[in-house]
Design a protein that fits this description.
Helix content: 25-40%
Shape: globular
Number of strands: 24
Structural class: alpha/beta
Number of helices: 20
Strand content: 15-25%
Strand order of the largest sheet: 14-13-18-17-15-16
Radius of gyration: 25 Å
Largest sheet: 6 strands, antiparallel
């Protein structure tokens, strides 16, 4: 790493020269850096706005899932089978599905070797369980904090190699030429109040963007508050978006942001709704004639946790009813683990076979929901207690929240974006389509960051040159950024735009979440475009310390515009699909079976991918065919020769 300066408008800005930069310190970012170093690319650094921020370290569920190729004797599996299942999700490129399946075991075993305690039986088999959209039993877990433990183990591997971690750095702009990525601009938080406002230039011909999903898009969100994301930066630089309309939404606790999936549902908590006067009722009984049918649907929410338009007459009816109680009727909804739901006092015999047998095999056909949860998953109780919520004595407030972006920045099978040298790993990458097996995001983060690191090592030379062309580009971009930053700092009401953006996030949750209102989305698109066009006039920051937050706010607005472009196009072209239920104006709130009217899915719309591009007139989205599943040549000698050729770049020093 070389440290020098760039002279811009009378100020010397720090210029850091590196071979490759990784942005983000989640499990994707740390893994990318660790593999780069292993492959001999040691002139690298990780940039992060906060090592301890982000989704990987700060989120989870009842037993957060890692989805992998089956490694137990009772689960016949293959790379081809897993790739086919990933591809079947709809809107998924076949080469990415095959790469994720092929890299599954290698990536999983690395985590095991680094100390992530995935459970094995007495013979050393990594046993599994079934998760949502999983035809087999490929899932495993180390408990509620699987991704946190993964991140900590990967961080230790990075620190053991002395890979520099530049903390307190918010990346604000990618520097891109016709040849691809050239570097980036970032804000050093320690220099915000000095001349130059902390603006720092980084020269790197390869950038791995691992900033997580665009967490700021929604108000109702289970993303940790420390997570921001910076997808808008890549979209503005010209990178294509893929499937930006595809998200996961599900039930989550509100006081402490956490998914209430899996065991939280399978122990059959009592669902109650409370009005402003404190009156409560078991509202599910208003919509299900049979209380045991309601309990079976709650049970199914455990592993059918994400909202799914194909299940709105089944388990996803629970999400719609929770949304109606909260967003339409203005009530609060709670899961109560202290008492059984009505009907269960008569015993478990009338439950559906799947529900009853699951509880029976788990030794939990007894007591109250909290007693069943204590038997099946005590860490799920301890987790809330650690955040001052005692499930033994108080109900848990919940809502329908955004949880994961299945779309993101478009990548190829090496996780390289449409901008040469810009790689996207983790949730920021648009590798998933309409459906994905629960936990496959963790596998994708590990495989994608491995693939990116390997491709960089195999196809590029380690270079730290600073040509005149870069100096001209960086000087121009830094001057523009300086004007923007200076224009943001002036007297005024510092909360005006923040409050407006909060309203936009609330509108996204209301009109562009799991329920999508075409007219509402169109109006929202106009509002966001207007906010962006007047951003520098409306942002009033009273201290340079708020500059990173202001830039992140703008990045969120850019991302929201791109997402809305994809959502409106999808609503028009395919109707209701996946996690997006397109509602119609003729709602019938008197329909107690399903109190909503919606557009059905249109035929022949499954196996295409939405691509979103920035133009001079804004974002434009359109469907295109997915890339098919490859049929690679399996002849060993051919593969061996090709492998030796690729690895020579890494292991024979030809860099």
């Amino acid at each position: 790493m070389v440290n020098t300066t760039l002279h811009v408008d009378g100020i010397d800005l720090p210029l850091i020269v590196l071979d490759t930069v990784v942005i983000g310190t989640g499990c994707a970012g740390f893994n990318a850096a660790d593999w780069l170093y292993t492959f001999g690319r040691t002139d690298i650094a990780i940039l992060t706005e906060g090592v301890n921020r982000g989704t990987s370290r700060n989120t989870g569920s009842d037993k957060q899932t890692y989805y992998k190729l089956s490694l137990a004797s009772d689960g016949l599996d293959s790379v081809a089978a897993m790739a086919s299942d990933l591809f079947a999700g709809g809107g998924v490129n076949g080469d990415i599905a095959l790469a994720e399946a092929a890299g599954s075991v290698r990536s999983f075993m690395k985590l095991c070797n680094l100390g992530v305690p995935f459970p094995v039986n007495e013979y050393g088999e990594y046993i599994g369980y079934k998760t949502d959209h999983d035809p087999r039993q490929r899932a495993t877990s180390v408990g509620p904090l699987t991704s946190k433990i993964m991140t900590e183990c990967l961080e230790q591997a990075v620190r053991d190699k002395d890979i520099p971690i530049l903390d307190g750095m918010t990346v604000i702009r990618l520097l891109v030429s016709d040849d691809g990525v050239e570097g980036l601009l970032c804000l050093n938080h320690e220099g915000l109040e000095r001349p130059g406002m902390g603006l720092t230039v980084v020269r790197a011909r390869q950038v791995v963007l691992a900033t997580g999903g665009p967490a700021g898009c929604y108000l109702n969100s289970v993303y940790p508050e420390s997570q921001t994301g910076m997808s808008g930066m890549a979209l503005e630089a010209g990178a294509e978006g893929a499937n930006l309309q595809e998200w996961q939404y599900g039930l989550a606790s509100l006081q402490f942001r956490w998914n209430v999936s899996g065991t939280y549902q399978q122990v059959l908590p009592r669902y109650i709704s409370v009005d402003a006067d404190g009156n409560e009722r078991e509202f599910l009984l208003d919509y299900f004639l049979d209380p045991f049918e309601a309990m079976d649907m709650v049970f199914l929410k455990g592993y059918q946790w994400p909202f799914d338009t194909a299940k709105i007459s089944g388990s996803s009816r629970i999400d719609i009813l929770v949304h109606r109680e909260t967003a339409v009727l203005g009530r609060q909804v709670f899961m109560d683990f202290r008492r059984n739901p009505s009907g269960l006092e008569k015993g478990f015999d009338k439950l559906g076979d799947e529900t009853r047998q699951y509880l029976e095999r788990s030794g939990a056909l007894l007591g109250t929901p909290i007693e069943r949860l204590e038997i099946m998953n005590r860490p799920a109780i301890d987790l809330y207690r650690a955040h001052d919520i005692d499930l033994y004595t108080q109900p848990l407030e919940i809502g329908v929240c955004a949880q994961h972006h299945n779309g993101g920045i478009a990548v190829d099978s090496h996780w390289q974006s449409t901008i040469r040298g810009l790689y996207i790993a983790g949730e920021a990458a648009g590798t998933f389509g309409v459906y994905r097996p629960g936990g496959s995001a963790l596998n994708s983060a590990q495989v994608g960051s491995l693939r990116a690191a390997e491709h960089i090592a195999c196809t590029t030379r380690s270079e730290t040159d600073v040509p005149d062309s870069f100096m001209h580009l960086a000087t121009r971009e830094a001057a523009e950024a300086t004007k923007l930053l200076e224009g943001l700092i002036r007297p005024g009401n510092a909360s005006t735009l923040e409050e407006e953006c909060r309203k936009v996030r609330a509108s996204m949750s209301r009109s562009a979440g799991h329920l999508r209102d075409p007219e509402g989305m169109e109006e929202l698109e106009r509002r966001i475009a207007a906010l962006l066009s007047t951003f520098t006039d409306r942002v009033m920051i009273d201290t340079p310390k708020k500059l990173p937050s202001a830039i992140q706010l703008r990045d969120t607005l850019v991302t929201q515009l791109a997402v809305l472009s994809a959502m409106r196009t999808a609503a028009q072209m395919v109707g209701s699909r996946g996690a997006g239920l397109v509602i119609t104006a003729d709602r019938d709130d008197e329909n107690t079976d399903l109190p909503i009217s919606y557009q059905p899915v249109k035929p022949n719309s499954e196996n295409r991918q939405m691509v979103t591009q920035r133009t001079k007139d804004g974002f434009v989205s359109a469907f295109k065919p997915v890339r098919p599943l490859p049929q690679p040549d399996g002849w060993f000698e051919t593969v061996w020769n090709d492998y030796r050729r690729r690895m020579a770049q890494i292991f024979e020093g030809d860099r």
